[in-house]
Design a protein that fits this description.
Elements: E1 3-19, E2 25-42, E3 47-52, H1 59-70, H2 78-86, H3 98-116, H4 120-123, E4 130-137, H5 150-163, E5 167-171, H6 183-197, E6 203-206, H7 213-225, E7 230-232, H8 240-249, E8 254-255, H9 263-272, E9 279-281, H10 283-286, H11 289-301, E10 306-308, H12 313-321, E11 328-333, E12 353-354, E13 357-359, H13 372-377, E14 379-382
Helix pairs in contact: 2-3, 5-6, 6-7, 9-11
The chain binds xylarohydroxamate (XYH) and magnesium ion.
Length: 383
């Protein structure tokens, strides 16, 4: 089996999700946006797919990296191919991102799963058939009836419990919200949710990424007293000594790093040096499923949980494979958005929830049920 052909289809679809200047997602007016689908085809006619931004799959990266490393190679040797691609990053002048590597790797693994006719989560370990979901809110906003006040968060938390979620993570207000960040408001939102859900319901906070040590400590002390389960990303993750200081001075588990570069090398430093109490990885943050599995296994060796950043097929595959994660991050959620409506290019979402649980997909590979007809009709360009 050899990789024979690699192509990208860029297509248009409608969305009501918008990103603010800090890159956070919010509800907005419905508009057209573009998505790219990477296709990796083998010489026996099988195809693996993964979706990503057109920027992450632009022709320059396809021709100079993905094709050069994958074409003519056996996709079953995915560790070898991942290493080959990742090692080209240093000389790429910043062009070859972890996200691009992740998309390429996941399309390759999707092909492998189809060749072996097995879901990836099972091929990589098959530890569990289902996983409990926590509802991960969008960041706060100034939308009336949205997430614009502590009471809005409390009200939304009750709705999420009615939908079946077994835990809830707040993302509170951040710039460009006019008065954010604001520790006191974050504490009020966390207190309002604790008041609404009762004292035993698992709650987590994912805070503004740029608080100082003193602000992060004040906020952490408050949510510790409110019985929160973990505390995530209150400071810039490039200062690992700040997180070590915070973890040493608080009892509430510190979770991370989420976005810090450096894949398993950075996370090995956080895990082995007690900079975090719960490790974190996400396929798009560290270059795919393979590095994510390595990070979770390393955390396991330190008796540490490793929670997975974000939803989606790749992260679900990691969760199904490993033992030391407790939750699936289902989101991002908002009172104005119906998360269960799939994007037009999928026949159904990968993560339907039943009684707060997400079942692992049955389809081989990543398990996504792709609407190829929609993509063909709405294709903008193919290369
Ligand atoms: O704010 O849109 C966002 C980010 O995507 C952020 O929520 C991220 O998922 C995260 O921090 N998850 O834990
Ligand atoms: Mg986070």
């Amino acid at each position: 089996m050899k990789v024979d052909n690699i192509s990208v289809t860029v297509f248009s679809y409608k969305t009501s999700l918008v990103n603010d200047t800090d890159g956070h997602t919010h509800p907005g007016p419905e508009h057209d946006t573009d998505m790219a689908m990477l296709s990796i085809e083998s010489d026996d006619g099988l195809k693996g797919f993964c979706f990503g931004s057109p920027q992450a799959l632009r022709p320059y990266l396809l021709e100079n990296y993905i094709k050069k490393v994958f074409v003519g190679e056996d996709p079953l040797r995915f560790e070898k191919l991942w290493q080959s691609l990742a090692r080209w990053q240093r000389g790429s002048g910043g062009q070859l991102s972890d996200k691009t590597i992740a998309i390429a790797e996941m399309a390759l693994l999707d092909l492998v799963g189809k060749k072996l006719n097995i879901p990836l989560w099972k091929l990589l370990g098959g530890f569990r058939d289902e996983v409990p979901a926590y509802g991960s809110t969008m960041c706060g906003d100034e939308l009336k009836g949205g997430l614009s006040s502590p009471d809005d968060y409390g009200d939304f938390a009750l709705k999420l419990i009615k939908q079946g979620y077994k835990a809830i993570k707040l993302h509170t207000w951040m710039p460009p919200v006019s008065w954010a960040p604001n520790v006191k408001m974050d504490i009020k939102a966390c207190a309002a949710v604790r008041e609404a859900v009762g004292e035993d319901f698992p709650l987590m906070l994912d805070a503004n990424h740029w608080y100082s040590r003193t602000e992060a400590f004040e906020l952490g002390k408050a949510i510790q007293e409110l019985g929160y389960y973990w505390y995530e990303e209150p400071m810039d993750e490039h200062s690992s000594s700040s997180y070590k200081w915070l973890a040493d001075n608080l009892d509430i588990p510190i979770l991370g790093p989420e976005y810090a570069e450096g894949k398993f090398h950075t996370r090995a430093e956080w895990i082995s040096n007690g900079i975090c109490d719960i490790a974190r990885t996400g396929t798009m943050d560290v270059g795919g499923i393979i590095p994510s599995i390595k990070i979770t296994h390393l955390a396991e060796a330190f008796n540490m949980d490793c929670e997975i950043h974000g939803g989606g097929a790749g992260n679900l595959a990691v969760l199904g494979a490993i033992s030391n994660a407790r939750w699936y991050e289902r989101g991002l959620l908002h009172p104005f958005i119906d998360y269960n409506v799939p994007p037009a290019y999928l026949h159904k979402i990968i993560d339907p929830m039943n009684n707060g649980m997400i079942r692992m997909p049955d389809l081989p590979g990543l398990g996504e049920d792709i609407n190829f007809d929609y993509i063909k009709i709405n294709a903008i360009k193919k290369y």
